[in-house]
User: What shape does this take?
Amino acid sequence: MHHGKVSTQIARGLLALRKRIAAAEIPPSALDETINVAVWNIREFGKVRRTQAAIHYLAEILGQFDLVALVELRHDLTDLGRVLPILGPSWDVVYSDWLDDPGGNRERVAFLFDRRSVVFNGLAAEVDAPRTKDGLEYLATQSFWRAPYMCSFRAGNFDFVAIATHARWGDSIKGRQAELQLLADWIDTRFQDRFVEDHDLIVMGDFNTPAIGDQLFKALTSHGLQVPEALQTLTAGSQHLGGTNLAKDARYDQILHLPTLAKRFSNRGGTVDFFGSDARIRELFPDKRYNRAEFSYQLSDHFPLWVQVKTDIDGERLSQIVQNNKAGSR
Assistant: This one.
């Protein structure tokens, strides 16, 4: 981390924030063995300019991970550009374009990653809804309000594809459910194709699913996507939470995987409660009188969700070679 010369006030705030991060008990990643993967909806990131203190706090939280999917990143990347130098020269980012209409909300999706641990493999694409021919045109009958974004990465000797998205909220549960079903159907079709970039898939985002097991979550997981075991119960260290929102009562944010990837996840995962309570806001912003909503536009109204992924698969590959040889010699 490269916070550089900061004011005494920001230094005090960073020390207070580090205590909150330490309470989350995020394990260090091990080069070529594990990475810490996270998803974070940073509220309207790029629409509301952050204070200098908030920029340092955002960088401090992001720097706990190796690969972070950012959702609700806006068209203006100025504040992201202020965060990157604090993270340091090994950090990089790849991001999608935005849509101007109200559904798109001028939002992007980005993958922020530390090149010491994670390498971008080259695939970067928005997920398009399936089209059918209508006269001379090929048109989708249903759309994503904000297109999911898909990128390929390598960590250690483990190659994988990551998809991140910010699903619609809208004024209709039915519409939200249909969009989540559309994503589930698309993944099921695409990742059975032999030409897909890689069959190891991690799906992350703010899916606006209030609870694991509700009708929205069931649509998203209708073709087998699973929550890693470490995230079945949500914790921030020893603290048990009901959700990743500041009220800690809604599981809007999820990290999911296909069943074949279950063994890649360690038993470590959770969230980071950087908020604590309304009474503790002034520990980070002593010169402000932020209420909860104002605080959320400096940091966020969502906590980051993270899980540790095991990336050393050499042993499994060697075992498979031996098993294949035994099968062939029968």
Observations:
- Residues 173-190 form the longest helix (18 residues).
